[in-house]
Structures are given as C-alpha cells and as structure tokens.
Protein: Knr4/Smi1-like domain-containing protein
Amino acid sequence: MNDNYTSIGNIFLLKEPMGLPKDHIQKIEDLLQGPLPKALKNYYEWCGGCKDMNSAQDFLLTLDGRYGHYAFKNFLHPDYFAFYVENQCVYVWGFKKTEGYAKGDPEVYESSDLGKTWSPTGNSLSQFLNSHAYMNFIFSMEYFNEDFVDATEEQVQQLKEQFPIIENVGSPTTTTNNNNNNNIQYLQPYEDTIIMIQEGVDEKYELYYSSRSKQNFKKINRIILRMTGFEFDSESESNSDSD
Structure:
C-alpha cells in the first residue's frame, strides 16, 4: 500500500491495491491534458476502486459515474480540476491546474457556486483524501450511531486523552464560511473503530462513531454515552456483555 494511504487501506481491509483501471486513469489524465499530481494518481491506483471508501457520504469523481451520477463531465472548470463532490453537489473540491503536477501534493480548493469562485481549504490533496476516507468509513460500516451525540469541550478532551488521534488528516468539511482546518478530528480506539469529532454550535461538539466489530462498537458506545450523561440499567449492561 502507498505510504500516504496505508492507514485508510488498513481500516478498509485492503490487502492489495483496489484501484481504478489503468485505462480509466489515463483517460483522466487526457481530460486534465497533463499528468496527475502524484498524490491523486497514487490514490486512484491504490484506493480508487473501493466503493465504500469513495461513496458512502461524499463522492470521488470518475469518468463513468460509478459512484452515482457524479462524473467528471458535470464538473469541468477552466482553471481548477475537480475530483471530489459533496453528496448534495453543493460543494466541489479540486486543485489548481497550474499547481497539480509540479507540487505533487497540491492544496485543495473548494467551490460552492458551481465553480465560479474557489477558496483554499488548507488541506493538501493527500490530507483531504485521507480525511474523506475516514468520514466515509463512519457512514459505511454496519455498526454506527445513526444520530450524533452532543459533547462538551471537556468531554472531547477526555476522549482525546483516552484514545489516539489520527495525525496528518485534514478536515473534510467545508471551510468557505468557517475558515479553519480543525473543525473535524478523528480518533481510533481500535484498529476497526473510528470516532469523528465535529465542531457544532454553542461551543458543543458532535460525535459520530463506527466500527466493523459489534463488540468494539458496543464498548465505544457505552463509553461515550456514559461520559455524556446517558445511563445504562443493569439488564442492558448484562445483555451487552453477553453479545
């Protein structure tokens, strides 16, 4: 697995590359009229064919719209090359064509007005792709909290002290109207489990969490709900432990 994407490959259980076909990648370069940035080409080669990684919440653009109707032909812009789109098509993300290949891992820009204006996100391309992969993991696993849990800053700090923070990952949320790169963070309590911490309103945070394992999901669910004030009766505790 490519070094930039080893962690996301592991959490999606990719033992070998699950990329887009070589001819598909070549046609994308033809569309760009030049070589792709190394960070994006590596992602296409290693992870571009993993459906859950690229379409559970927001979507990787492809030539054939294999992840829904989100195909390159709908997002062509003269100065920016769009490669990812938000699930309602309100936001689209791309890189400057003049920066792409030369920088290798260029900064990602976003547009919310059909490509008329673009704003920097503060994320490199590899940071952005990693962050979206973790977000898509949250929404693609069988075991996840369907409604987010509200938490205070103190409670979030408790989680950060208890579980490792995933480093060098950008924020996948929009930054046009909230220009910071820290409004989402990820924790990884277990190798098959992710917690997403998103800044909310009124100094609150929203917690989303997901796991491939029912047992580990129950552990995290219990920790978070107890921490945020929910109570478990003795019967539910016993049933949870016996599953």
